[in-house]
User: Fold Purine nucleoside phosphorylase DeoD-type from Anaerosporobacter mobilis DSM 15930.
Amino acid sequence: MATPHNAAKPGDIAKTVLMPGDPLRAKYIADNFLEDVTCFNTVRNMFGYTGTYKGKRVSVMGGGMGMPSIGIYSYELYHFYDVESIIRIGSAGGIGDDIKVRDVVIGMGASTDSNYAEQYKLPGTYAPIADFSLLRKAVEAAEEKNIKVVVGNILSSDHFYNDYEKTNELWKKMNIAAVEMEAAALYMIAARANKKALCILTVSDHVFTGEALPAEERQTSFREMMEIALEIAD
Ligand SMILES: O=P(O)(O)O[C@H]1O[C@H](CO)[C@@H](O)[C@H]1O
Ligand SMILES: O=c1cc[nH]c(=O)[nH]1
Assistant:
């Protein structure tokens, strides 16, 4: 039962899928953390793998950049492949003054400048939030591993390059910790499907200070976030 974007057959994908934006980060996780790995998707090079982590069956698949992209992949995983939980693991730009490069940020809520919620025809403003059980497990796993995490409101933006330079200052006034581009849509799709989602981020650069992770450090700095996500997969 393939979809236009996923060649997996029924049963190929585990109940929990870790979803980085970059498909090569999915491959990195499969190569470095999983055992008995099989590749279930290469359509559009959006690699997807299933393997085991400490004996647990878990999948990892790229989700692409932006809400339309993660919207397609997460919708298909929830609705056509019986996936229960998607844990996005991504990079983010720091916004809060107390946020530093390499910090791990968990999106309890995901504010957005996107109109992704328009499709639901709601008579008000929807607040996209993480699944509490996944959020709690992630915080507990981080505590056990002595990893400091910031839990708060993140911004899922349609714009990596924004023409209006005051935008991030306005979001900062509302106590937004960091900016990325997918979590709000993922949280909405999960809610609508009655499934679970969480977004864990590593700060790769800071929007105001200009501090940035060197390219070669990105993979290793993302390790803590990957380990938290793998621990809570069930
Ligand atoms: O590192 P990933 O998961 O791709 O996430 C962030 O990086 C991309 C922008 O460079 C956007 O997808 C943003 O959300
Ligand atoms: O979406 C993103 C990701 C990393 N850094 C940013 O500034 N934005």
Summary: Helices lie at 23-33, 67-80, 132-144, 167-173, 183-193, 215-221, 223-232.
